[in-house]
């Protein structure tokens, strides 16, 4: 067999914008595809490969993926975050315990200071790598900033479950232990710890309007901590649940971001009658989630945009009112940013009983500095070596301590990076980091817009929320989460940008013992002991490379043979991915060309090609017709099944010959006719249900083909009932086949 | 056949290697610029059948016979190529071979007349197994006449049979993808015949005439189809067989006798019959300026060129026009035997449409189902910077122009 270089390197050049935008590089496209196919368990497992907090991120992440979602250019982005929450909630509802004990085989002990998202993620990574890890947490509760996020956005039970899953892997957690007071690095070293990770976060209140020592002025951090305590207590005792009407009636919250918004909505739920929120930015520019902002307004928070307090006035020791000023945005500069200026003469006063300062939070380094020689960035955070997150020899830092006040998902990414750095330091083994800069390929460029969308825009599936009137009374979760049909419907809107979905299904379906498939960092590699050629339709075809023992995958794409192409454009019309275009060709002709990065290998273009110029790798028509030669007349029933309708497990009756294609749209009348001509007593074409077609548009095509075949067979005098058509899901596939094929013979 | 027999049969040594008359007429050469009938003949004379290898012309040839018409010595290149194809299966079928599958299946259906063959066609089982595998089809009968409604009068006169060929199949296969009706031609033919007082016999178990199978070298299937059709036609005791398709007309009239002996009936294309009886028909003139595209088998194989033109004259208020290449010089539409479509197919259709526009015609008229399909299927593309032309079928036009009828074009 000639070994021409026909392989595709599915390297990290070819991926989707959502995956690239995720700080933790979750294969977003992969898990959305899996949800669309109803494979929720696999979707959750795929998320967990990169992110240990799917339930938390699925609720509170700022969603950088959705901001770059290609679908958003057309109508609305895919609700990637909500789908993550969905698959997590499903597991939680079913009571499945996902904790998998890690194999701790190394002897180098690692100490992590701070059980926030950064510290927990780092500990998880290190435990997976085999290190014995102990986390030292200053407070009574692990979770860090995650505990402060109010329960209506992030229920405590989710936080505890996620943290519990990680700790149960084999990590030791010590609470109530303060670094710099109860612990020292020297002391830890004496106890055998070889690496230290500082992940203490950003807990220091930063006062925007002066720490005044007045009664009635509190920082948002303190306010939220107290609220969290009460919430925790309320879960336990009924007495705590019965909240008394607060004597403090009016609240003013000032700040720009989620800290301020959370404080305001918590205030509403804590019994304050009037809650005003001063945001120093415009409605469009405020760094808060749109839906969160609208929810706050629905709950009765009076939001005043472009306003800022300038003075807190008191009577005696008590706060009486806040003098504020209106702001305005200046012209955008070269980078598009607008400066904020105070408007002359626009001062106004708001009377209030409580002022919550939600300006910012900063890092506390005093205690750390006592022992560790820390360098600081201009922002006042701890400076680290960028690749390894090292402070100095054996000491590392991660999370808000390094980045400043940021989101949970960024802290997770930071902790993961530090774990790799620690691993490198302790073992000298550099594992490949997914954070290396990735080259952009044509898939991500605007001109290569995928138009696999319906003619009319379809908006994002609405997240069901509790009515504002009801929900503002307590801390129950506001967003209810998708139901299964909603989740699948939303996932099906995905355009599937990029090529390899890294769903690693090929690894699952490959049942050959002598080859090894690995999907890693957007690349599929195949290790083989000896050369061979796999011919089964539906499996991964492998070629043996000449020099190495490694082989690469041949991707299922369609190809045009220019000699036979007449440029009719039927392929271009039917392709839902704009992957094939009729272009000018030498000799004054117009010939179709397939863009291999966009082609999803469905094969619909092959079916409509009138000349046979179009063919599909791994599913060449010669191969399909060859399989049909195995028919035993009067006995063999032929089943044309699409890859996605058929489940991986389950045996077919012996008298059924399976021809599996990627999509039922590949099937032509001549394939069906061939089966009948060879004496098959029954042919079935099985595809997915219309709305859940993996490629979104093909089911209608295959139904037309079956119709046409029946008409031709009827014309010839055959019973049209010889051919049947069935729409299945993997769940009812085998039952449908058994009903059609009858008993095993 | 042995090499020397082939040379003798097709008068290949009559080829004087003149100055490429055949090449100038050949539509494949016109596009590719390499290899033409003369080359093929020369190569064969030199090296015999084995020396041909993957010759371009072997399967790209559309057997239009333009080469023979142009040849000063009438060498039958097309027949020669047909002979070379016998026993070979390395062609590239259109539509994944659907049309051929249809024809081969028809050939394998149980027949009341039996067939004698010892060799099996590639891809189909031997006779014994056919019987077994089609047990459940023991009473299978083709459903060919569903399109005949009460308005049409058939099976009245025993004298005339209307052979509809593959039209019911084309209707199913091409209606949606090409946006046209093939059966409309058959319907129109019956209407016109009815108007002439003829109630033609339509056969229920008619099968493909076998033209494509003969041309691609599958003589076995051809034999099965032909022997069945001959018996069916004989059984009707008709004197005249009219066909809707020129290929059927030629095949039955000339290819069948060549293999199976004299036939007891006359075979003609429907246009011949209608042209003879024009004075018995009253028309409401149609007003489009028309031009006629001569189908290969009608003009070059059957030599019928005036009949369709007379018909067009009779039904048009404006004088029809001629394209640059017409009558026996009309180029093939490229359909061939439904194999090896490619750049030359596209070029043939596009060039013809340019000619039609240039002639000043508003509509192009064809008298062959394959031409009709090809002009719809291989639609013009932007490289030729032109608009498509309206394509009409001759018999449909005649039927819609009959006096006392609503004018309805398909």
Describe the structure.
The complex is a heterodimer of chains A (745) and B (410). In chain A, the strands form eight sheets. In chain A, strands 3-2-1-4-16-15 form a six-stranded mixed β-sheet. A five-stranded parallel β-sheet of chain A has the order 6-13-7-8-9. In chain A, helix 4 crosses helix 7. Chain A is built from 26 helices and 27 strands. In chain A, helix 25 (698-716) links the parallel strand 26 (683-688) and strand 27. Chain A is an alpha/beta fold and 745 residues long. Chain A is 30% helix and 20% strand. By secondary structure, chain B is mainly α. Chain B has three domains: 3-85, no CATH class; 94-275, no CATH class; 282-401, 3-Layer(aba) Sandwich (Rossmann fold). Chain B contains 20 helices and six strands. Chain B has helices at 3-9, 21-25, 27-32, 37-47, 56-60, 66-70, 77-85, 98-108, 127-133, 167-178, 183-195, 211-215, 219-236, 246-260, 270-276, 296-301, 306-315, 343-358, 369-377, 394-401, and strands at residues 160-163, 240-243, 266-269, 290-293, 363-366, 390-393. A three-stranded parallel β-sheet of chain B has the order 1-2-3. In chain B, strand 2 (240-243), helix 14 and strand 3 form a beta-alpha-beta unit. Chain B is globular and about 65 Å long. Chains A and B meet through helix 24 and helix 25 of A and helix 8, helix 9, helix 10 and helix 18 of B.
